[in-house]
Structures are given as C-alpha cells and as structure tokens.
Amino acid sequence: MTDAEAIDEPTYIYRPSLLGAPWQFRLTEDALFWDIGRRSGSVPYRDIRRVRMSYRPVTMQRHRFVTELWPQNGPRLDIASSSWKSMFEQERLDKPYAAFVGDLHRRMARSGAPAAFETGAHPLHYWVAAVVFAGVTFGLFALIVQSLHAAVWGGAALVAAFSLMFLWHGVSYLRRNRPGRYRPDALPDVLVP
After folding, report:
1. Count of other CB atoms within 10 angstroms of residue 55
2. CA 57-12-108 angle, 5° bins
3. Is residue 75 part of a domain?
4. N or C: which terminal CB in the chain sees fewer CB atoms within 10 Å?
5. Residue numbers of the domain that contains 113
C-alpha cells in the first residue's frame, strides 16, 4: 500500500476487552473493511442500514462513546472511543475516534446509503432509565430530608454528597443518550468526543 492509498484509507484500531483481539476498521472508497480476531469482512457503505451513536460509560472509562453499525448482511459492528491498555487502564482515543467516525459518515453520505442515523439509547431503555433515575433521586432527597429532620448532620451530608455525584453522572448520561435522529453531515456534538 502506498502512502497516498494509506491517506485515502483511514484505519481505526481499538481493543474492546483486555484478553480479546483488537478490532480494526479501514475505510476504502466504497466499503468499510473490518477485522475482529479470526473474523473479517467488508460492507459497502450503501449496505449499512442503521447507525447509532451513543454515550456508554464503563467502570474504567467514564468518557466513552460507541458508534454501532447494522449492515444489511453480517454482524453488528461496534466502534468505541476507548481501548484497553492494561489490566487497570483504558486509553481514550478521542481524536482518532472522532476523525474516523466523521470520515465514515462522509463516505456513507457520498454513497447515498439509505441508513437510519439514530442517537442515544433505545427508547424503551432510555425511558426506563429515566424513571428509575427520577425514583432514586426522589428517594435520596427524601433520605436527606429525613436525616435533617432527625438532626443527623453527618448522614445528611454524606447522602447529599453521594446525591450530587449521582445527579451529575445521571443527568449527563440521560442528556447524551436521549433517543433521536441526526443527519450524516451533522454529527451530534454531545456524542463526539
């Protein structure tokens, strides 16, 4: 492969698990090539039927985004913005991920792919999470009020501190994962690192 071909064929590699093989994706003029351990293949851009961008924090990486692709034929392909580096560390790949996903969308738009471009979580999962979040928030608030009423200042302060952290992460998750649609030429800012 020449240098000019390498420039025209961006590559993105990440490791979704510590012990698994790295996942490699390469963009060519008319298809996405993928290599996942012992499996590999390609999918023409026009055969990608659905794309979903979402925010998916995990224990070791709170700032993690995923782009899921559903080809007409073949397995669902996940492209994540972080990679396992060691047993205790995940590496953020913000810039390479943003560049690769942006280029993938541009190539899909040029090909005239009839894909549905979705944001966030599946609507059912999102609304269940929103109801659970509201219930837990109400419960924590009630616990703070009860602690203050009983003059248990330390307990109220501890629950309040936990509640603030819970609210911070919960609101961020729900804001970024709100179900919706987008155009391939206007990627959602909250889902691109």
Report:
1. 24
2. 95
3. yes
4. N
5. 3-119
Let me know whether 115 and 150 are in one domain. no
Going from the C-alpha of 19 to that of each of 66, 75, 87, 90, the distances in angstroms are 20, 21, 9, 13
Per-residue model confidence as pLDDT tens digits over 159-180: 999 999 999 989 999 999 999 9
Task: Assess contact for 68 and 78: CB atoms under 8 A.
Answer: yes
Structure tokens at 105: 């969308």
Q: Which two tokens stand for residue 36?
A: 């996942």
CATH assignment at residue 65: 2.30.29.30
Domain count, the chain: 2
Supply the DSSP symbol for 22. P
Task: State the pLDDT at residue 161.
Answer: 94
For 146, list phi and psi in degrees, rounded to 5. Answer: -65, -40
* Same domain as 115, residue 103: yes
120-133: per-residue pLDDT in tens?
A: 999 999 999 999 99
How is residue 61 annotated by DSSP? Answer: B
**Backbone dihedral angles phi then psi of residue 160, each to the nearest 5 degrees:** -65, -45
For range 27-33, the mean pLDDT = 95
Looking at the fold, whether 110 and 128 belong to one and the same domain comes out as no
Specify whether the backbone of 120 is left (phi greater than 0), alpha (psi in -120 to 50) or beta.
Answer: left
Cα Rg, the chain, nearest whole Å = 21
